[in-house]
Write a structure and sequence with these properties.
There is one protein chain. By secondary structure, the chain is of the alpha/beta class. It folds into two domains: 200 residues, 3-Layer(aba) Sandwich (Rossmann fold), CATH 3.40.50; 181 residues, Rossmann fold, CATH 3.40.50.2000. Helix content is 43%, strand content 15%. The chain is built from 14 helices and twelve strands. The strands form two sheets. The chain has a six-stranded parallel sheet, covered by helices on one side. Strand 4, helix 5 and strand 5 form a beta-alpha-beta unit. The two termini are 28 Å apart.
Length: 404
């Protein structure tokens, strides 16, 4: 499998990946998160497991089991960590802990390296086996949280051997080692592989989308922080001057109980406009998303808060111009004015959309730059390399160069 990335991923990344695979061959590596479907974390883990196994590492991926009450609580925790005013009571924290305690009895947590992803399973550290290096991997923006909620969560996080964040500004002043590793896309996955014109047209025809008109696209969960209403506002400003259609596409996630509410709000706001297509796609609709991104004229990710926003890299890999909210990890991907544009308001998004619609040369130029930026920085081979590097560093802390 690693050989398949030759000529796509940087050669140096592949060489180091092979060497780390030799070091950890036969060792066990466990990842735990809250869902197998919906969102970038699940998608990355799905693509990462076969690569780790190909390297000879005993890789496992476990998902915590919980009820709606738990996920309602953890959604509030998630929102509070990202700065949205939420109150988490002591009783809610107790229930959160008890659900993780139950999962600790069900999941075999014994592994040489254990990576726990995001707030939902963070308290599993309380049930740590003696064996293993434990890392808390945070994919969300904790730079300006509700203090009381963040402080409570950090009680667990400071018991890990290290933490990993996606962007430097997301980090917290805590007592354990911190590392910065951005998420990634797999260029060989069904979502990112090359598609024929026939495959793209089949998807557009199935959804009744006219492919001959300029298409504005945002792919994301139906989440207020993704600002789908703001995207519709920007589209309506553009529509006064440029013919275009808008597609808002997303899939449900089992750990996001607010998704249906936001989806209904978006449908109501868009009602009556036949040129707005709101697509609730089943989980694992990777080929459909790929086709929509490749058919788009302009791709948006107008988030108000964002962990990283991998849909930006997905679109850039396909040579598309991208307009994103200036938040979270989006500015790492969009180099403003070079690989795309960063915006703060619907008015700003509308202005940049019109620039792209009226300047085909700019679209081509930024699309080419964006693809190369993703190749150098955001492919899955680099992320696996970095995860294994952190594992190696933590296992060898305190050793001299002569002992390694």
């Amino acid at each position: 499998m690693i050989d398949r990335y030759a000529g796509i991923a940087p050669k140096g990344d592949l060489m180091l990946l092979q060497r780390l695979g030799e070091i950890f061959r036969g060792r066990s590596f466990l990842h735990v998160n809250s869902t197998r479907a919906g969102g970038g974390v699940a998608e990355i883990l799905q693509r990462m497991m076969p690569i780790l196994e190909e390297l000879g590492i005993d890789a496992r991926w476990e998902v915590i089991e919980a009820d709606d009450r738990f996920f309602d609580i953890t959604k509030k925790i998630h929102n509070a960590i990202q700065g949205y005013g939420e109150k988490i009571t002591e009783e809610m924290w107790r229930y959160y802990y008890e659900v993780n305690r139950s999962n600790a009895g069900r999941i075999d947590l014994g592994a040489d390296a254990v990576f726990i992803h995001d707030p939902q399973p963070a308290s599993l550290i309380e049930f740590r086996k003696r064996r293993g290096t434990w890392v808390w991997r945070c994919h969300i923006d904790v730079s300006n949280p509700v203090k009381e909620v963040c402080d409570h969560l950090m009680r667990y996080c400071e018991k890990y051997d290290a933490t990993i964040f996606s962007v430097a500004k997301f980090t917290r002043a805590i007592s354990v080692d911190e590392y910065i590793i951005p998420p990634s896309i797999d260029p060989l996955s069904e979502k990112n592989r090359e598609l024929s014109d026939g495959e793209i047209n089949e998807v557009l025809e199935r959804f009744g989308i006219p492919g001959e008109r300029p298409i504005l696209l945002q792919v994301s969960r139906f989440d207020r922080f993704k600002d789908p209403i703001g995207v519709i506002k920007a589209y309506r400003m553009v529509k006064k001057y440029n013919d275009c259609i808008l597609i808002l596409a997303g899939s449900p996630a089992t750990d996001d109980p607010e998704g249906e509410v936001v989806l209904n709000e978006v449908r109501e706001y868009a009602a009556g406009d036949p040129d707005i297509f709101i697509l609730l796609l089943p989980a694992f609709s990777d080929r459909e998303i790929n086709a929509l991104q490749r058919s788009a004229t302009v791709v948006l990710q107008k988030s108000l808060k964002e962990g990283f926003g991998l849909t930006v890299s997905e679109a850039m890999w396909k040579g598309k111009p991208v307009i994103g909210g200036a938040t979270g990890g989006i500015p790492l991907q969009i180099v403003h004015g070079y690989t795309g544009f960063l915006v703060h308001t619907p008015e700003g998004a509308a202005f940049r959309i019109r620039q792209f619609l009226n300047n085909a040369a700019m679209v081509k130029r930024m699309g080419e730059r964006g693809r190369e930026h993703v190749r150098a920085n955001f492919l899955i081979t680099k992320q696996v390399r970095d995860y294994l590097s952190v594992w190696y560093i933590l296992e060898n802390k305190g050793k001299t160069v002569y002992e390694l």
